[in-house]
Each structure stands twice: as C-alpha cells, then as structure tokens.
Fold these 3 entries.
Entry 1:
Amino acid sequence: MLKTSLTATLYTALSLSAIAAQGADAVDVAALRADSMKKLVVHAEPKDTPSTPFMLQNGEEMTLAGLSDSIKVVNFWATWCAPCRKEMPALDALAKEFAPMGLSVVPIATGHNPIPAIERFFGDAGIESIDYALDPKSKLARDMSVLGLPVTVILDEQGREIARLTGDADWHSQSARDIVSALLGQSAGPEEQMPQN
C-alpha cells in the first residue's frame, strides 16, 4: 500500500513538473517577442491542425503534419497581397539561416495565384532558400481559420500549431531569430542542443 501511494505521489509530482516545464517554455518564447513579433500569439497548449492536403511545388500532395519532424514556419500568402510580398525576403533569410538546424519555412500561396506570377515574384525578390506550396481553392486556409493574409503559423514536430501571427512581420529580426533558436533548442534531444553563441 505504501509503495503504491509513493509511486502515485512520485508520478503526480513528475506530471506536475512536466506541465510546469511546458508552461515555462511557452512563457520563455513569449518573452522573446519584440517589435513586429509582438503580434505573435504563443499558445499555452499545442493545437491540432487539419489533415487538409495542399500541393508542394513539385506537384506532390502534402499535409501540415507530413512536412517534417522539426519546427515549421508556415506562411499563408498570395501574390496580390502587398504585405505578403514585403515579408517574403525575411522568411527566405530565416530559412537560409536556420534550415541547416532543421527549420522548415513553407510559404503556401492560397487562392488564385498563377504559378508564372509566383515564379516571377520569387525571381524578382531573390527568393532562393524556400519552395512555394499551393492551396488553390483556399481549403487549407479556411480549415486553419485564416481570415486574411498574411498569416504565419509555427508548428511543432508533430505538426501541431504552437504559435500564430496575423499580418506581416520581420521574420529575420533579432526577435524572430531568437524565437526560432529557442524553439529549435527545445525540440533538439539532449545531445543535439543548439550551440550557444
């Protein structure tokens, strides 16, 4: 009886410390928000994402959960959206810096976006580190409750939404880079922690 009670007490204490640690992680990331990243809403708990398919640049169908097993920055945008076009070079710079550490940056063109227009914009803007994806009927955007553009969501390793930013932002600002560094550091195993500067 004593052994069972001790085991239950230990289990409860471990569970509570795990919950406290998760809360601390969310608070730590929230504390890194500055300037345009202040609009980033960090969720207390990860939110499931829909299994609605979208199309990769190579024509393959994909879901948010199937993208990768690391942190993902998914940007809903359109060629006709001026704020979307303004922030894309910063997303490209973020991808260039953090892709070697496992970050995936996925801009999903939602609605009517002719591929020649996307490719012309990427060429003119010098976008080289990210590939576009397509949501031509805006089904994924609707299922993700994207009501305007741009909207950027950060997904964890399981494809669950952990943060969301509505509107444009400087995704290569010091604040954005600190947030991504923190998230990648939290997702790394004990032997894979990111090096400290």
Note: Strands lie at 41-47, 54-56, 61-62, 72-77, 104-110, 133-135, 151-155, 161-166.
Entry 2:
Amino acid sequence: MSADGEFGQRVVWAVVDSAIGPLLLAATGAGLVNVVFHATDGVRERALDRLAERLGSTPVEDPGSPWLAEAVRQVEEYFAGRRQDFALPLDWSLISGFNRRVLRELAAGVPFGSVVGYGDLARRVGQPEAAQAVGAAMGANPLPVVVPCHRVVERDGGIGGFGGGLETKRRLLALEGVLPEPLF
C-alpha cells in the first residue's frame, strides 16, 4: 500500500507538545481525523498502525501539511490559553451511528468552561435512557480535546472516566476554569 493511499486516502500526522503531554494529530483531506494522548514511541506506533488499518493508507509524518498545520496551530493556542473554540474541519470517518451523533452534539453544544452530564447529553440526542452509551461514545472519541469529551461529567459532581487518564481530564478541566489547578 502506498503512502498516498493506493487503497485509501492520504493521512498525515504530527506530534504536538502540550500541557498534558505529547499529542498525535492526524488529518486527511476531509479534516482532522484523530487526536491521541500520550503519544510516545509505543503509543504513537500503535495509533499509526490502527489508522493505517482503518483508513486504508500508511500515515505520513508531515507537520507542515496544509491539512494539519491549522490543527497544530489551534491546539497550541488552546493550551496557551489563547483559544476556547476549535474552528477546524473534522473527518468523522472513524466513528458512526449513535456515537457520532453524541460527539457532534458535544462539539456543538458544550462550550469551553462548561460541563454536561452523561444523562443530559443522552437527552440532547433523543435517547434519555442512554447515559451509559454516552459514556461508551466518550471512550470511543477519536478527536479528544477538539471534541471535548473531558467536559462530560457524572451528575453527582464526579468527573467520570477518561481515556487519557483522570489526571489528564483534571488538567483539561482546570485549563478551562472548571476545576482548580491540580496540585502535582
């Protein structure tokens, strides 16, 4: 299979340093397709292998790609406290069905500095009994940070789970002013 996607689409990637550790950003011509936490060597390689399998082409490191440069810039601005909303094209091809509906609602309807409960988000997509399924959708989010699954919390005030680890979720919520800055 070629890097240009003989059987799929071209996928480019870069690693960005952030306040929560290295993030792998990957994009296609349709937009940002994946954000991966803790993108050290082993994690990065597994993520790139999964992308190649799911998208049908070998991802190519290209931080200057026009598909990726704006995403890198906006993520850096977010962590520097200069951006609250992402204005990026997103490639939703890694997620479908109920999970995609939930994540699109989350991206559009839960602004910076606010949180929503799992059950509330389930109601917003017309499935009021699906709070656990919303949790599963958060865990399947291929675009964390940009599609802010860290803003989904338990109704009793707990922060809930998080694919990037609870400390990462605490740091993101602190960055947005929802929680006090964590003590390290």
Note: The mean pLDDT is 92.
Entry 3:
Amino acid sequence: MLPLVLILGVSVDTAQKWERAFSKKEQKLIQTPRNLVDEVWISRPPLELNPIVVHSPQFSGRSVADKLKDLRENLVQEKARGILITTLDEVAWLYNIRGTDVSYCPIVFAFAVVTLSSAFLYVDQRKLSSEVASNSI
C-alpha cells in the first residue's frame, strides 16, 4: 500500500509539481471533499462585516480604470485572456479599496478576476457602500 500525503489549498501547478515529486517516493496527493481545518476548528469566531472604504487616487496615485488598462495591456503581451488575483493586498491595490478584515493590515477578504473585456471583484456585498461599488467598476 502506498503512503498518502494530504495537502489542502494549493494551486493546480503546485499540486502537479508535488505529485511528480511524491510519485518518486511512492506517495500521492488526495483531494479532500471538505476543508479539514473547518472540521477541527468548531469554535471558530464568525468573520466580522467591516465596511470597505475607497482609497482615493490622491493617495493611491492612480485610478482603478488606469490600473485595469495597464493590467490588460500586460495580459495581451503575455498572450493571456485573464488573470485571477487572490493575494489580498493586490486586490486592495488594484481596486483602491481598504478594510479592516485583518488586524493591523488595511486589506479586505476578496479576490478578483480580470479579463480582456471585464473585471470582477468578489467580496461580501454587505461590506460595500454605494461609493465603493461605483469606484470598483
């Protein structure tokens, strides 16, 4: 029987690299049907619903539209159709938003998908004011 290694929350590219490396040691990755941390951490406190604020171009230096334009130019150069942005500080930078979802760090739990023709910000809508919603388009 092969020894098993359980890995959670890694990219497809990383998982494939690990699969190749582990197979040399007769090990393999197994996808779990649920997050095992959630199974163990039963007393986890609920996430707070702190409001998102717009970080003015006066302080950020550039508008969201300008940043999206430059990002799309880079996508064309790289012959890519889109990008998934999951790093919280990069999402905050791209959309000129700030929050208090993490203590002592002005970020928001969110991710973004940008294609050559559209941009999507995925965030809990209860955190959005009309100002934030209109700025993020």
Note: The chain has two domains: 4-40, 53-135.
